[in-house]
Amino acid sequence: MLHFFMLFILFTSLFSAEVKQYRWANGESYLTFLENHKLPLKTLYYNLDKDDQFLTKEMISGVKYQILSSSDGEIEQLLLPINSKLQIHIYKKNDAYEFEAIPIKSITKKEALTLKITSSLNYSIVKETGSKKLARVLESAFKNSLNFKRDLRSGDKMVMLYEQSYRLGDKFAMPVLKAALIEMKGKKHHIYLNESDDNFYNERGSRVENFLLSAPVKGARISSYFTKRRYHPILKRWKAHLGVDYAARRGTPIHAAGDGKVIYASNAGSYGNLVKIRHSGSYETRYAHMKSFRKGIRRGKRVKKGQIIGYIGTTGRSTGPHLHFELRKNGRAINPLKVVKISSKKLYGKVRKKFLRMRKEYDKNMDYHLKRMTKYKRVPKLTRECYFNNI
Length: 391
Known about the structure:
Blueprint: E1 4-9, E2 19-23, H1 30-36, H2 41-46, H3 50-56, E3 64-69, E4 75-81, E5 86-93, E6 96-103, E7 107-116, H4 121-129, H5 132-142, H6 148-151, E8 157-167, E9 170-184, E10 187-194, E11 199-201, E12 221-224, E13 227-232, E14 237-241, E15 244-247, E16 253-255, E17 260-267, E18 273-278, E19 283-293, E20 302-303, E21 308-312, E22 322-329, E23 332-334, H7 349-372, E24 385-390
Antiparallel strand pairs: 1-24, 2-3, 3-4, 4-5, 5-6, 7-8, 8-9, 9-10, 10-11, 12-15, 13-14, 15-22, 16-21, 17-18, 17-20, 18-19, 19-21, 19-22, 22-23
Helix pairs in contact: 4-5
């Protein structure tokens, strides 16, 4: 239940107070943040359950957060986004601070970007939009199918169709690329996000490979899926599960999901025995609750995809033998199942027919924007005031 509701309006409000917005500092921990703002560590961290303590470790540098203070400078409320779906809400009630995880209120808009390349693809997008995230998602999507450094020329054109979330009037979270077209040397190259499996395909319905993982436990049953927010029916509060759980018998071998370098192999509290592997492209995989590590698995060890690194167990905060498997990119948790290798890389039957209908609509939309060279619309900076309603 939300104890308070934040409503942002322009210029006037009932009990007017400016909400100050900041960016989370690089390297700052949640505990350091509490100390710096003279907030009670015991109430807002040490008395929390393990799941909520774990959430506080998900704060990412650069994310925007909001503080509401009273006229004498005392903090009344805080909103700290953890991911694109969930945020920490700290508020004062009866002269004591309370902690809760609540859903993020955001809106999603369908947007388009069309431009002529003037230099590199990255530079052209950032110059036009000011958004490194837009450049990143487009380059990542085409990474293994086009060579931008070699083939892209000044004057080439591109179109992006994407969805962007907004929180409190500001862009929030990574944009989701839906379709894109890049015209190089007069030839058009397309890419489409297939909603059936959240993977990218070209105009022929063939999957565009990027970083592909293999399943870390062969033949295991998935007992819990990745979700950035879910409402726990028993605990009556919002939680997140930032990985995939594979249930299997104790001692079942665990395999490295991809080539990489072990950067951690030790006990990690609620994670139990944990292995972290760093892969190319700023990816990192994590394997938790292991019974034991395979001999020779240690920090600095290089491993190959499919190599055994340990065995299923129930160490740490675990109710039964399973592997908690996480995938991170640039430190941010993403759904491993979106990049786990599948046997078929082409679409067939009804799924292909659905994809072709979707592709036709996207092509029509991209041709429209390409002919008109639709300009990018920058979001105006807004002055915010607010009031808080007890509900």
